[in-house]
Amino acid sequence: MIQALRDLLLFFERDLQIARTYRGPFVLELVEALFGAALFYYAARFVDSPELRQALPYGTSYFAYSLVGFVFFDYLNAALDTFDRSIIEARDAGTLEPLLTTQVSLTTILIGSAIYPFVVTTLRIAVYLAWGAFLFGFPLGAANWPTVLVVLLAFSGLGILSSAYLLLFKRGNPAKWLILGVSSVAGGMLFPVSILPDWLQVIAYLNPITYALDAMRAALLDHAAVPSLAKPILILMLFAAILLPVSLLAFNWTLRRTKVTGTLTHR
Questions:
Q1: CA pair distance 217, 102, nearest whole angstrom
Q2: What share of the chain is helix, strand, coil (3-state, %, to 5)?
Q3: Cβ proximity of 244 and 157 under 8 Å
Q4: By C-alpha distance, which of 3, 13, 244 is closest to 102?
Q5: How far apart, in whole angstroms, are the C-alpha atoms of residue 265 and residue 128?
Q6: 226: Cα separation from own chain's centroid
Q7: Cβ-contact 172, 80 below 8 angstroms
Q8: CA 257 – CA 13 distance, rounded (Å)
Q9: What are the b/e assignments for 110-140, b being 16+ CB within 10 Å?
Q10: Are 88 and 162 in contact (CB under 8 A)?
Q11: Strands, E, within 76-231: which ranges?
Q12: Would you list the DSSP string of 154-171?
């Protein structure tokens, strides 16, 4: 256990050292976050209407509603893209095969590769929310942050499956763009599911992302405690309990397959 924690720390320190050589993008992201928060604020003022307010959860502004949706979208994109990017960078640097043939467990390698990108995404989102709270009245208040983190980590398995696809077929997984596209419409990212046509509402209620967003908005905007979020959290836990083992098995099978065929480092 201690050795695994040390290995994870080494992964984080490696990625941090690489990032320290590119400081300019961090400053630009601070400015981008300001304009991003302003975009949602003024767009919300433009589309505000009695019908929209009636469809939103009680006491929630469309600005707060849409900003939380964007935050979730950013995290979902990170979950889908992080493992792919780590594999591509390691392959281009010539370190992929040595890394995947070491004594470090596969689980440690996957978690270690994801720590830094998720930390950076968290910091970027924190800046978005801080700008939103400081300039535009986003209600941070007593947000339930542990629940938010549980919700966000439930989808990491999708990224592992995507990286298995990349490792096997040497190209990005087109399904992740389908997931992002469908979820942006039939997931309640930027507008309530209740305004969708009936057939799209059926898709939305079968989509785990709908429940993730409901829980995230309740935790951030309504300061809901864990007991009141039992239903969406249980659905997400069931989703993660199935997805994570399946994704790890798929990646492990893909890794063995590419070693046998000698295509592990092929592009």
A1: 42
A2: 80, 0, 20
A3: yes
A4: 3
A5: 38
A6: 21
A7: no
A8: 30
A9: bbbbbbbbbebbbebbebbbebbbeebebbb
A10: no
A11: none
A12: TTHHHHHHHHHHHHHHSS
Q: Is residue 119 part of a domain?
A: yes
pLDDT at 184: 77
pLDDT, position 130: 84
Distance CA 172, CA 174 (A): 6
Question: With 80 as the cut, is the pLDDT of residue 87 above it?
Answer: no
Give the Cα separation of 120 and 90 in Å (integer): 19
The SS3 call for residue 54 is helix
Is the separation of the CB atoms in 83 and 114 below 8 Å?
Answer: yes
Alpha-carbon radius of gyration of the chain = 20
Q: What is the mean pLDDT of the chain?
A: 75
**Residue range of the domain that includes 97:** 2-261
115 falls within a domain: yes
Residue 189: CB partners within 8 Å, gap ≥ 6?
A: 69, 70, 72, 73, 183, 209, 213
Q: How many domains does the chain have?
A: 1
Question: pLDDT tens, 35-60?
Answer: 777 777 777 777 766 766 777 776 67
Residue given tokens 């370190």 in the structure block: 95
For 182, the token pair is: 């469908």
Tokens linked to 21: 């050589």
Residue 266 lies in a domain: no
* pLDDT single digits (tens) 198-242: 888 888 888 888 888 888 888 777 777 777 777 888 888 888 888
* Residue among 184, 161, 2, 175 at smallest CA distance from 82: 161
Query: What's this model's pTM, rounded to 2 decimal places?
Result: 0.76
In a domain, 267, yes or no: no
